[in-house]
Specification:
Blueprint (H helix, E strand, L loop, with lengths): L2 H11 L1 H11 L1 H4 L10 H7 L6 E5 L5 H8 L3 E6 L2 H14 L4 E4 L13 E8 L8 H10 L1 E11 L20
Parallel strand pairs: 1-2, 1-4, 2-3, 4-5
Length: 175
């Protein structure tokens, strides 16, 4: 089994566990109404003018950022490796009355998306640590970006999770 298939199997298998954890936190319920609840001040400075623009979120996972970007008026395409994670996100979007597109794809192969089609490509969390070919990942992201568009990468090292509080919330100093 190759590493890509192993990653996909992991994310599909852990989808319900993540869903329960995200339901407990509840950020997905309010991200579209309060984008700054999931985007940092610095990120907000890059996304505050996306109304009516085409936006792609790569490695969308919990889709909190995707929902926030919809709330800011973007036409969002959410891309994730796990169809189970996307199904959960689609159900949540329906509950909230949000309109966005979902695409199951490997972020190192975005051939289902046309070149130069997005004004903003966002990737965050810690997608890159799961990839064996980061150059291909970033090449694909840039390929789907329109000339003059913004490629926003908000990565962090997964070790930051060791500084979570006893209630599971991240240390506010991390934001």
């Amino acid at each position: 089994m190759n590493s890509h298939q192993s990653n996909q199997d992991f994310w599909d298998a852990s989808a319900n566990w993540w869903k329960e954890k995200e339901d407990h936190r509840g950020l997905w319920r309010k991200a579209h109404e309060n984008p700054s609840s999931v985007l940092s001040l610095l990120e907000m400075s890059f996304v505050n003018n996306i109304e009516g623009k085409e936006v792609c979120v790569l490695g969308s996972g919990d889709n909190e950022v995707a929902f926030a970007l919809v709330g800011l008026g973007g036409w969002v395409t959410s891309v994730d490796f796990s169809q189970r994670r996307l199904d959960i996100a689609a159900n949540r979007a329906s509950q909230l009355g949000l309109q966005l597109s979902f695409l199951q794809a490997d972020v190192t192969d975005l051939s289902a998306l046309p070149s130069s089609s997005f004004d903003l490509v966002y990737t965050g969390g810690y997608v890159s640590v799961w990839l064996s070919d980061i150059e291909k990942y970033y090449s694909e992201a840039v390929r789907i970006l329109k000339s003059g568009g913004v490629f926003l990468v908000s990565e962090y090292h997964p070790i930051r999770r060791m500084w979570t509080g006893s209630n599971g919330e991240e240390n506010p100093c991390d934001s």
